[in-house]
Write a structure and sequence with these properties.
The protein has 84 residues and is mainly alpha-helical. Helices cover 60% and strands 7% of the residues. It contains five helices and two strands; from the N terminus they run E-E-H-H-H-H-H. It has helices spanning 22-37, 40-43, 47-57, 62-66, 68-81; strands at residues 3-5, 17-19. Helix 1 (22-37) packs across helix 3 and helix 1 (22-37) packs across helix 5. The longest helix has 16 residues, at 22-37. The protein starts with a strand and ends with a helix.
Length: 84
């Protein structure tokens, strides 16, 4: 499996390695969502706007590059899972 160094330190997790699979994307998505939630300007955005910003931040993730439509579905699933 190919690992890629994270390009966005703001969404880096415990490991800087990202893999081209849904699990890796979900972990990066959750981290980015939590970081965004702590920013005052993000609190003024609705769910859709916040989702679009996160997907844009993660556009260089190997999974998002490989399958952007499924990456969006993973993001939507994560939000439903967390009750957002």
């Amino acid at each position: 499996m190919r690992a890629v160094m994270s390009r966005s330190p703001a969404i880096a997790s415990d490991s800087d390695r990202q893999f081209g699979n849904a699990d890796s994307f979900a972990m990066a998505f959750d981290t980015a969502w939590r970081l965004q939630a702590s920013q005052p300007e993000a609190q003024a955005l609705d769910r859709t706007e916040r989702l679009e910003r996160i997907l844009a931040q993660l556009a260089d993730h190997p999974f998002a590059q490989k399958d952007a439509a499924t990456a969006r579905e993973v993001g939507e699933f994560r939000l439903r899972l967390h009750g957002v």
